[in-house]
């Protein structure tokens, strides 16, 4: 199979060479942070860690403590807005990214220097190059371009690849299908549920990708939490390979990508490879912190090797992945990775319409209104591939609300939940919902049942 390299200097190394080069980057980063970054310098000193004595990646994992989202939020609250972890003068920043804030804990703030913008652009550029995208191509990318990392990284990647991007967030699905054919689009980046919606629109239009989209070379998506069976259906309809991208705000971009094999070739899954020239990844037991063996599941921990502003060192992602070693893929790259389609959250987060939705954030938005007695949340997948967040709510009998006031409060709840989650729910009032005697279990995810109703 023809190899499409974005960074051949690193992608063609053997594993020993890769580890040596990666450790050199790690040493440089640790030395810099110990001298210039109060957040890490103070933390390491309190833990009795001298990073100058770290001799390799394994010793790094044993000596250096992990950090969590709560650590970063606390630092930001003590020294707003970026915390002491910024590590560079504010005059060096030319961008920022924020997490969505839907954990109910707070939003992590990440400053970006010009160098950080380059790194942010390389993640998706790496994935799209492997998917067959070339300079001059037209592509469609669907993340919103706001303060979230996915959309901002797509902008940087498009610039670095010298491609023409169509930003399709919120665009009518029929219109997007028309553009795929009319503009000779070579690649579409979208969440799996959006590909289902595009398929339904294409069928209604009589659009056959094999004849009406001859320039299409590949599709890229993020396979976190949806059933892997979606891969079979998407590839079958579009007639091109599907490639996985794992990204995060902590990495500022796509940080793990498929190789030329894609995620599935009809017989087997292929790893989603960590881009280890930019990030050091560990897969550890979430209870003990000990690295898991190949093929075992564990929590993903990330360290940024090149980031200047707002770096992370041994950050606990709270993502559950299955470790895939570098030699489990025939592509020959020296990068470890993870099994596609097996990534989920250790926390009770729900991924809805590409957004991270935490039930606790909805609890806050709903129960701030004292007239509310109880609610239930459901996530459903319709036959046309559309995902919906459905909320049923009951109001207290003694609230004394008129019919008009009840209808108005339903509308307010829609807006408040949307603000808390970045997803617009459908809210319906019911007469009564039972209260919980013990720990509330308000949410059900019905997307697997919905998938069974979809016909192709």
Task: Give an overview in words.
With 456 residues, the protein is an alpha/beta fold. Helix content is 34%, strand content 22%. It is built from 14 helices and 20 strands. Strands 3, 4, 5, 6, 7, 8, 9, 10, 11, 12, 13 and 14 form a 12-stranded mixed sheet that branches. Helix 2 crosses helix 3. The protein is globular, with a radius of gyration of 23 Å. It starts with 7 loop residues before the first helix and ends with a helix. The relative contact order is 0.11. The model has no long low-confidence stretch (mean pLDDT 92).
Query: What portion of residues is helical?
Result: 25-40%
Largest β-sheet summary:
12 strands, mixed
Q: pLDDT under 50 segments (min length 5)?
A: none
How would the global form be characterised? globular
Number of strands: 20
Question: What would you call the structural class?
Answer: alpha/beta
Percent in strands: 15-25%
Rg, Cα atoms, Å: 23 Å
Question: Could you tell me the mean pLDDT?
Answer: 92
End-to-end span in angstroms? 30 Å
How many helices in DSSP terms?
Answer: 14
SSE diagram, text form:
Blueprint lengths: L7 H4 L3 H22 L1 H9 L10 H7 L5 H10 L16 E4 L10 E4 L1 H17 L7 E4 L7 H13 L2 E4 L5 H10 L4 E3 L2 H14 L3 H4 L5 E4 L7 H10 L3 E7 L4 E6 L13 E3 L4 E6 L12 E8 L10 E10 L12 E2 L5 E2 L4 E3 L2 E3 L1 H9 L4 E10 L5 E9 L7 H19 L4 E4 L13 E3 L1 H7 L3
Parallel strand pairs: 3-4, 3-5, 5-6, 6-7, 17-20, 18-19
Antiparallel strand pairs: 1-2, 7-8, 8-9, 9-13, 10-11, 11-12, 12-13, 12-14, 15-16, 17-18
